[in-house]
Design goal:
97 residues; alpha+beta; Arc Repressor Mutant, subunit A; 3 strands; 14% strand; elongated; HTH arsR-type domain-containing protein; transcription regulation; transcription; DNA-binding
């Protein structure tokens, strides 16, 4: 993973509201969670939620799918794992752990 990609994901997750939103999405698992349910749980105005979801999507942390009139957010677990791996890849390379 390139450092710029990891930095973008970490930047987006560094915002308290976006991190709260992402935690709800990750908890939902592979089936995802409806945007309306995130809004209800976190009491975030729709326009604000939309802005934050867009930021998380642009960092490749989630994808959206529509089922009828319901819009779901689904975590891109493979990308999240790559970000975590990026942070762990060189753990203790300069010393023996």
């Amino acid at each position: 993973m390139q450092i710029e990609t990891a930095a973008k994901a970490l930047k987006e997750l560094g915002h308290v509201t976006r991190l709260a939103i992402y935690r709800q999405i990750v908890k939902a698992g592979h089936k995802g969670i409806p945007v309306g349910e995130i809004q209800e749980r976190l009491q975030i105005p729709a326009s604000t939620l939309s802005h934050h979801i867009s930021s998380l999507a642009s960092a490749q942390l989630l994808e959206q799918r529509r089922e009828g009139r319901v819009l779901y957010c689904v975590a891109k677990y493979n990308h999240l794992e790559q970000v975590i791996g990026f942070l762990q890849d060189e753990c203790c390379v300069d010393e023996s752990c």
